[in-house]
Amino acid sequence: MMRKRGFTRIALIFGVLCLVGALGTTASLAKTPPKTPPLKINPIFTYNKADREAHLYACAKQEGSVTFYTSSSATDPSLKPAFQAQYPGVAMNDYVATSPLVTRLETEEDSGHHVFDVYNDAMGNIVRDSKYFQPFFSPYSKLLQPALTSPYYMASNGYILVGVYYNPNLIPTSQVPKTWKQLLEPQFAGKIYMGTDSTAPAFAALLRRTYGTAYYAKLAKQVRVVNVSGRGVADLIEAGTAPMGIDMSSSYYERDHVGNNAPLLLQVLQPTLGQFQASSISKYAPHPCAAMLLVDWLNNPKEGGKVLQSLGNAMPYKSSPPLPFSIPGQLAPAKWTTIYQTSNRMWTGFKIYSQAYGAWTDLYNRFFINGGH
Predict the structure, then answer these.
(1) Which pLDDT tens digit goes with each residue over 290-331?
(2) Peptide bond into 271 cis (omega under 30)
(3) Number of domains in the chain
(4) CA distance 149 to 277
């Protein structure tokens, strides 16, 4: 039943595209622009036979590779080797970045230079529609929470910006802030590090909505912004360069501290900000079969989904808990007050999410980057 609904949604999109084209012919000949070729839908994006995986793999091997644009720091050490081991003959070429990712995609696509096959990044960082992306069907969409899938994207994994990370060799646990308000205490000035991930404006916006504009301005003066990702801030803390950090994924605790005994401890603060990564396929994917194979793999709970969960990610499945692990001595994840970045609660007062994110970015640049000027 779910597969039929997936086809229905895509069929509706195609029908609308055809209808728009038909209506365009009713305009006067003098005002009618040159006709554009009708959108050709590669049948690989709606293939739904029993041999789907084998069919995609055979075609992908002929293509030879897939190009993956992503902000996931787990790509090179974990996702890439696991995918290539499962599908020999299909090489993963990746570009891993945070803030520059969307800019690079838009610049390439707007110039007609089509490079990427699959874009995997935080939901909300770019509009997922027909401008750059291809509608597709995947049998794994039925496993996801309804808000985390559409014909243009499927969420693969999530993370929660959950509190303060710290190095216990630099700051004793007893002295770590236990509330967001305590970040304003004088002894923490210049000791709180924050990266320039694309989540930073939204993370700061959540604290502004919770505690007000005066708190926001004071926090910006306390924080030391460094031009690295949240992953980079974690590395600084583990190296003993930074005492504390905020706007960092909860998955680092599982991956670094639990998995490798790194000096990276976590103090949960409420509320927390949640975000999901979602995969979309390029409208002009150079390797369509490999692109579809990769998206399926990322969302298969026994394949790519298993790899992502093992790294401590929040998962998008209907039955998934907020996190696949707990933190000793901290409030259980099920009791966290987690607000997702794309939730209506975050962008009340704006017509669309992108407007809200633009406003958050302007404020973030003004206060955190430019010192309030």
Answers:
(1) 999 999 999 999 999 999 999 889 999 998 888 888 888 888
(2) yes
(3) 2
(4) 11
